[in-house]
Amino acid sequence: MTTPQLFQPTRIGDIEVTNRIVMAPLTRSRADEANGDIPGSTMNVDYYRQRSGAGLIISEGTQVSPVGKGYMATPGIYSEAQVEGWKPITQAVHEAGSKIIAQIWHVGRITHPDLTGGAQPVAPSAIQPKVVAYTNNGKVDVPVPHALTTAEVKNVVQQFRQAAANAIRAGFDGVEIHGANGYLVDQFIRDGANQRTDVYGGSIENRCRFALEVVDACVAEIGAGRVGIRLSPLTTFNDMRDSHPQTVFAHLVEELNKRGIAFIHFIEGETGGPRDVTGFDYAWARQAFKGTYIANNGYNREMSINAIESGRADAVAFGRLFIANPDLVERLKINAALNEPNPKTFYTPGHVGYTDYPTL
Ligand code: PHB
């Protein structure tokens, strides 16, 4: 029997990978918050090293600025201490033979002043989502955000550019722009969150402008072959909606294609939920986009092997399965049983549920 292509090497943009299994970005809330949201503790390094069987690791979301932070103890990538903190992580992954890119993230309106050092959350429009934030003061409704001025939007684009430059300095092989799940980039794209009347709102072209300016800034900084983006056209997570997802995301895919970026990473269906949601044609996107199509959301072994063999995807990203199975690639290869993830320890401090899942 021949080895399925899932387990064979390929290239994702400029990045050579040993297999087509990707570790999805996963918030784990275990950075050093007291000292400035710094990653790189021994425990953080161990966690990523343990998962280096993946052809490509996408880091947990890492905020591009203090106000871009939406959860407790998530790491940043804007300060020098944070860049230094990432270095032992990227080094350990490379020594183990894998590749790692930084997911660069701004949460926009999905945060609370308790998490941002007191700053008011920002967004395309002053629309309060029905979302709660978890802070050191408990569970709180997120407030009405400040609608960014046109000049402020330009400034956020520059923060993403700087984050991309910082990622390369920290030893990452590239970046994934977090354009999914109702965070800032997605808030601009979808009309449920964007009611602007300037060049960043209204028409589909205008709503995609921020995403494309962020992409262009990252491409200018580190090259198209090291830039990808994550999109979730149909998710309602974080109180999101859009009137015409097919038209909006088709425009975006065509524009991304012109830029020659390395990959688009699609969350197919409802984030962490049902896949059989209608409203966007992922098979069309696969055909229209010439770069790597990374598929995500609820894939198992058989689905992922089939997706690659049929040409529906070039790589498959696993999230929860990678939390519980550091040696996921080995297990999938031999069709071994998988450990079950424990949601109670997804975001808790310490080793438990982080670096203590057993390998075969
Ligand atoms: C989360 O921390 O719950 C989270 C973060 C980023 C996402 C989705 C969920 O894209």
Question: What order do the strands of the largest sheet run in, or round the barrel if closed?
Answer: 3-4-5-10-11-12-13-14
Relevant CATH superfamily:
Aldolase class I
What is the radius of gyration?
19 Å
Distance between the termini: 23 Å
The fraction of residues in strands falls at 15-25%
Structural category: alpha/beta
Chain oligomer state:
single chain
**CATH domain fold name:** TIM Barrel
Proper CATH architecture: Alpha-Beta Barrel
Task: Give an overview of the whole structure.
With 360 residues, this protein is of the alpha/beta class. The protein has a single domain (5-345), classed as TIM Barrel (Alpha-Beta Barrel), CATH 3.20.20.70. Helix content is 31%, strand content 16%. The strands form 4 sheets. It has an 8-stranded parallel β-barrel with strand order 3-4-5-10-11-12-13-14, surrounded by 5 helices. Helix 1 packs parallel to helix 2 and helix 5 runs parallel beside helix 6 (245-259). The structure holds P-hydroxybenzoic acid. Residues 27, 61, 71, 180-181 line the site of P-hydroxybenzoic acid.
